[in-house]
Design goal:
Layout (H helix, E strand, L loop, with lengths): L1 H12 L1 H11 L1 H12 L4 H6 L2 H39 L3
Helix pairs in contact: 1-2, 1-3
């Protein structure tokens, strides 16, 4: 992921600089080399996963759950805020 960010930064600033940087940096080739290095593990090692792999997956799940709960809480708050405005606008 770091290779890709280093590749995108100059391209976002100036298109020509980004194109020249792409020709020099070759992040895709570096990423393929990293994947090939990772692919040299045996099938049983690949199925097992490392502790860092499982911690990363757990972190992603927790972040997604937090986003869902946060979005639901904000939606409920806004719905109650709007309902309160309608309730106050009713003639008494």
């Amino acid at each position: 992921m770091g290779n890709e960010h280093r590749d995108r930064l100059p391209g976002g600033i100036f298109a020509l600089v980004g194109d020249l940087f792409d020709a020099w940096w070759k992040s895709n080739q570096m990423n393929v080399a990293l994947l090939r290095k990772r692919a040299t593990v045996s099938a049983s090692e690949a199925r097992q996963g490392t502790l860092s792999d499982w911690l990363f997956v757990a972190l992603i799940i927790l972040l997604l759950a937090g986003l869902v709960i946060g979005a639901a809480a904000i939606s409920l708050y806004l719905l109650l805020l709007i309902a309160g405005q309608f309730y106050q606008a009713l003639p008494r």
